[in-house]
HutD protein
Amino acid sequence: MPRARDPATSLQRFDLAAIAPMPWKNGGGATREIVCWPPGAGLEGFGWRVSVASIDRSGPFSAFPGVEREIMLLAGDGVHLQGPGIDHRLNVPGQPFAFAGERPLDCTLLGGASTDFNLMRRRDAWAGRIDILAHAVAPGSAPAGLCMVLAGAWRDAGGGELGPGQGLWWSAPAPQAGGLVPVPGTGARLAWIAMAPVLAPKCPAALMDRAPIAMESIA
């Protein structure tokens, strides 16, 4: 199932099997990019990005200044992440780990190759995180976001089913899209990311430009 837009909503369907891998920013691995928002922004200008990476050798992670990162093991033996203030073994599937993208970080394989789910977001522009859910969800209920089946089967509002590696993403609310429901008895689990823009603090220009008010002492 290639990427396709639902004509009735702003939802985009995807299937990892139909997404070609691309090299990492530092050339040390490969990733399947599910979404990079806004379109055409590339690795230097994205607001938020979700991908699935294949790691088959040890080496440094790419640096992404100003970016908050979250990584979660999908399959394989996992990796050992080490850097200033970080010493973490990512070896349990379905447990996200967050870190600052500008931190130098070395990645050491704990065995064979591993497959990881990744969220990156500009911290001054977008808020969001990875959650693992096993209950019904409503894609399009957040300002932007993504959901991907991790296990089992999920049924959409039209009766269609999504399996592992398949999912939906959206860049604008789509309340009319309906929901995704786990199919009983399939061990259904879903990676869920709800994104929201970070609002700049309100500081009227008139107040910024106003001269300090002199206070008179009262005898």
Remarks:
- The longest helix spans residues 205-209.
- The domain at 17-124 is CATH 2.60.120.10 (Jelly Rolls).
